[in-house]
Amino acid sequence: MFIQVIEGRTDDPEALRMRDEIWHRDLQPGAVGYLGSTGGVTTNGDVIIVVRFESEEAAQANAARPEQSEWWAETEKCFDGPVRFHDTTDVQQMRHGGADDAGFVQVMEGHVTDREQARQLEDQSDEVLADVRPDLIGTTTAFFPDDTFTEVAYFTSEQEARAGESAEIPPDVAERFAQWEGVMKVDRYLDLSDPWMASAT
After folding, report:
1. 21 in helix, strand or coil?
2. 6, 48 in Cβ contact below 8 A?
3. 16, 17, 33, 101: least buried by Cβ within 10 Å?
4. What is the pTM of this model?
5. DSSP helix/strand/coil, 166
6. Which H or E element spans position 24?
7. Percent of residues, the chain, with pLDDT higher than 70
8. What is the DSSP letter of 145?
């Protein structure tokens, strides 16, 4: 899987969302290898869009389409300042349900001190989290070559996610989470209360 993370700021989230809807209506049918996307705007105007393709080659082929360039030229105007792109094929997923049904999405960005240990901890936590955090229906973690990461966590609703955050968890799960925090240093949280969800199916 190939993931592209697009970030910036906007003072017109509705205009940006409209551009997103136009892409899915007019350009998605011709985007070979497109798997889906998650995006949105936080309450303070931070934009994050995470796009998934089957491969880097498929993503490059989409980017090379003239209609894609035309769409982006207009979409870029919705951003207030520069737009940042981060690409990777180093992706890890966890699914406990249909992520496209998420009512709340939290994105965590940071840096990883031990990528292999982080991968193992996330694998080990998959089944455990399904039991102790039923509100968490999936995650997608993108690891980048500069040892940074973006993790997208999908929740049933914001209310249930907040309740899950404050609920007491078993000691062994707490210990494992502490280990995860030791290798996955979160620098920034972005909460998407109205996430834009799309998939190829």
Report:
1. helix
2. yes
3. 101
4. 0.89
5. helix
6. none
7. 97
8. T
